[in-house]
Amino acid sequence: MDQLRAMEIFVEVARQRSFSAAARRLGMSRALVSKHVLQLEAKLNARLLHRSTREVSLTDAGQAYLEPCAAAVRQAQEAAQAVAQGGDELTGTLRIQAPSSFGVTWLADALARFSLPHPRLAPLLHVDDALLDPIGHGFDLTIRVGGIPDSRALAIRPLAPCHAVLCAAPSYLAQHGTPAEPEDLHAHRCLHFSHLTDGTAWHFEREGERRTVSVAAGFTSNNGLVLQHAALQGLGIVYSTTFLAWRELQAGTLVPVLPDWQLPLNHLSALYPASGRPSPKVRALIDFLVAEYQPVPPWDLLLQTRQAPSA
Prior knowledge:
By secondary structure, the protein is of the alpha/beta class. The protein folds into 3 domains: about 5-85, Arc Repressor Mutant, subunit A (Orthogonal Bundle); about 90-160 and about 265-300, D-Maltodextrin-Binding Protein, domain 2; about 165-265, Periplasmic binding protein-like II (D-Maltodextrin-Binding Protein, domain 2), CATH 3.40.190.10. The chain has helices at about 5-15, 20-25, 30-45, 60-85, 100-115, 170-175, 225-230, 240-250, 280-295, 300-305, and strands at about 50, 55-60, 90-100, 120-125, 140-145, 155-160, 165-170, 190-195, 200-205, 210-215, 215-220, 235-240, 255, 265-275. Strand 1 (about 50) and strand 2 (about 55-60) form a beta hairpin. The relative contact order is 0.13.
């Protein structure tokens, strides 16, 4: 038995929760995938998977084995790539997960520019606003806005501050009035991002004074771009971020609401498996993003920029 190959197959079955799906991903027959996993279980003298007609799930032993197994497979693959490339060239697949709004508006462009000097590098960017388990889903690097898991299995590197902002279309404020205090939001239609940590409790701070308002969400989505489009149509007041709304704020198609009050500061962070050193391609991408987004992220610089008066 090729134990490393069997470990790789087990990790894929665990991620896909299906022998058939893993077989398709690996380009193998289902029978051969099952055979490798059975051989690995026999080698370890432990049952790793519960099998049913609907789904495959991990046993307690399988759950304990998955993380170190995935780390060992990843390190072996990276070692092989390092030998193959024999220099500074970055090669192979780089699996990245990011929130959809940030992935579309900022990361896709940065990732393309990062990849240009590395023709043998194959980035795989998965955009999803769900808080996916980076290790369980096999990502080399995960970009998060807030929502950092409490896990010793993950290393975290801050990339940039992420400023939240309330804003609305001028047409909405002209029709419904402009809130002067956080409590005034009770009388307004609020567009709510469903992944906020405290739900519909919006927190405000000004000169040491703190207030919390539980808003009535008149429109909810797990995607910031959806909410921004709704706000641009004059639907209500949106809880957004400067990386998403800078262009509209600069153009005046959205205007700040309660600008004297600060919303909680989040951070844009890079997460990667803490076991072993990050691979050269992960380190290189993180360093590239740090250079892109620090000390002041470009969206905040652009928001501060004002059109020069015409002559």
